[in-house]
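WARN retry 2 of 3 for item q-0093 after timeout on previous attempt; input resubmitted unchanged.
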Amino acid sequence: MKKTKTIELIKGTFTPDEAREILFQLLDSKINFHNLKNWSSRERFGKPDADSEQRLRYLMESKKKLETLLSKSINEEKTMIINSTIEINIE
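OK item q-0093 returned
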């Protein structure tokens, strides 16, 4: 039996500084999670966690893209509307 739950994580209008704080904290938390998972794999098995290494590359690239977007929004004095939903499937 499969169940799906949806949770609204972020919803609102933010200044670029507010958006930076919210989104970078989220990204930094995910980066930290995968760094720890990768470190644990190296300690326990003598090799990195391939999935975490791939995810880290993606998250770091996302962070760079976000910084570019935020800088542009600050320069243009724009606000940002952010909607983020998490979908959880229980199988």
